[in-house]
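Aminopeptidase N
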Amino acid sequence: MSEVNTVTYLKDYQQPDYWVTHVDLTVDLREGETLVRAALQVKKNGNHDNPLVLDGEELELLEVKQNNLPVAKGTNPAESYVVDRTSLSLQPAQDAFTIETLVRIHPEQNTALEGLYKSGGNWCTQCEAEGFRRITFFPDRPDNMATYSTRIIADQIAAPVLLSNGNLIDQGQLDNGRHYTVWEDPFPKPSYLFALVAGDLACLDDTYVTASGRQVMLCIYAAPKDLDKLEHAMASLKQAMKWDEEVYGREYDLDLFNIVAVDDFNMGAMENKSLNIFNTKYVLAHPDTATDADYEGVEGVVAHEYFHNWTGNRVTCRDWFQLCLKEGLTVFRDQEFSGDMGSQAVNRIDNVRSLRMSQFPEDAGPMAHPPRPNQFVTINNFYTATVYSKGAELNRMLYALLGKENFRNASDTYFERFDGQAVTVEDWVRCMEEASGRDLSQFMLWYTQAGTPTVTARWSHDQATKNFTLTLEQDVPTITNQSNGQPRHIPVTFGLVGPDGKDVFQGVLELTQATHTFTFEHVPPHSVPSLFRHFSAPVILEAPYTDDQLRHLMVHDRDGFNQWEAGNRFLTTNLMAQVDRYEHGQVIHVGDEVLDSFRRILQRADMDQELKSLALSLPVYQEIAPQREVIDPHAIIAVRKAFLETLGRQLHDEFLEMYNTNYHPGNPYDRADAGRRSLQNIALGYLSHSGDVEVAELAVRQYRQANNMTDRYAALNIIINMDEAQPYREEVAQHFYDQFKHDALVVDKWVGAFARSQADDVLQIVKSLTQHDAFTHPTPNRMRALYGTFSQANPKGFHAEDGSGYAFVADFLMKLDAKNPQVASRMIGAFEKFRQHRMELQTHMEAQLRRLAAMESLSPDLSEKLERYLGKETFNRLRGEKGNAQTPSPS
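Predicted structure tokens:
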């Protein structure tokens, strides 16, 4: 583990000294070891005498050849090869040559799950971002695009299925019960897109006929027991292929497309060329085991990884600083796809809620960085909400500014001009400029600067002239080394909603200066501005809406997102006011205006069911906390609890009527009924806070009668958290586990339900779970279900007054960092905003961060974040005192 955090800077980018143009790989999978032979065709880039340097980690080098001649090991790369912990160097004999290496690796021991590893008896790879160097020596960087031929050898009983990128061109039998396959990928790709899977897998296959009439074989592989859970993923894949043809003109380019689902996976999924590897969470779906949200997740992630075939694979990133180029654009594409498959408004609301809960805090915290960072210690730490979600918002703003036709023309130019190349954000934006004839140099600040702008709106109406004046003022934060505070180019999709509910004006305003005033003529009095429709820019809006104006937008705004946003703004304002009261020792008061607002929504019969469900949802803790200057978790929890209880009691009859209207246990499962189920379950949720003991019986009845996981899991969560359901809790929880203990994803749900429990002894509950059979061999999913849910979705338990919740998570991270640094680094995010919490909690959190920083051995992944959280000076001092980390944690 490195002691000094070595920083890589965007400004230092240079092309490699040598290009690898073709790779012949032979991967010999054996019990206890794997041998990898790589033959690289290399050519010099430019006129120089520098040695060839290949990346390599955790490799046992057995042999090196240059142009088929053995090369000896030594200390001078001019005369021999030189190998160390991270690289192999030698001096080429000529400008074009071949290098062949043979290495031994141990996938069974690879707990980091980077490179080639073994999971559940199957071999699997994860090469993004820098995992290929754990398989063989190679220039492991995205700008080196090469063609690959891969031969895989394995025991036929242990691994009857052998898969890699491209098309299968040969297969056959070998001696001693072994067999082989040969795969050829004709499209040049960077090393991070290499993939290999071998094991005992079942396959669901289908075909897709492209727009040009070619037939593509589609295969989705999973464990044989999960074969009946692949239909939805297959349907989603075919829908994505069709959508990409129709919306972007992009057709699939090979004869075969494979997806493989694996239990042990650090990420959600990986877009390896023609061989996508997925976390089972985003492939497997069946009504008995997957919720409506799971179905939507599968649809969106399958589409996302498929869309990468063009936005990421055929055109890739020049360097890892350009990660948002492929990820931001692909997230935008998958969001639009999901909206077209369902409700654009509902999908947009879900995306924006996620953005505000994850990316906005990141932009205001110690890990703030632009969508295109200018430096990093490890790229693994920059697979972030900023790169993905804010990166998507940048493309959405371009779409709003340029319009549908220009955006499509620009993307067509981009694909045609850069097919088979590794490019930059500037290349993408230049295509936008050419298609539209616009100067987007100011817009580029969104890519290169961090921080979330605040836009303040003021308006007035002149009764005499009938002019409506709107003034917008933007305030861009200044962040050291990350943002210079310059005004951004902000598209404001805007409408003026007249007193009759119809739009007086609609269009896109462009805010490019610090302050700009817009004037609209012939506007009737009492018209209400609808700002940032469809959330047209990732900004914080401060606007002086009255309650009457918000109610007007809630009923009449033609934009579904802003309909919801008006209600959300109203509720958030009321919640924040009551948190202020609570913190000053005053009684929490839920006003009649809040009850009346809910009552009106409950009575609306014209509203989309899913939109209505969202309108009835109280903003969650993670939406309120980032808006507090100083976060007192227990104040927010107390206020939300008071609101839930008041709404549940005062609107008991209305919620009960909504529940009974939407509860149809005898109906066969239909995904189209997701809106009905969401109304049913949100009603049951409010009723569970009403103090009505009969609601516990409703929840138990729903659990027992449920024919789908959505209803069953909603009931389980209510039974776990409802005081009146205590007599049923143990029996129902045990029944759930016994019924699904052989289904890993459902056990993850079960674990997560307890990890978010609101019981006073939740810490003891989660500690006991670590000794449960479910934690014998925990996957990353299982660890996230317990520790991730507890630390990021259970503020009551995590923010315990005595600091015990922080110590529990820190103890786990100390162990995890040595085994799986990627997952440890992601989980430490729960501590990121520790300085924003009230002092007592801040002190407890900082103590745990200091414990972690003083560990004897610390991964670069965790080290980079700890340095940013604690500050460089404090971090370096603690590293000098390392070894003193084993302070007893509170019990």
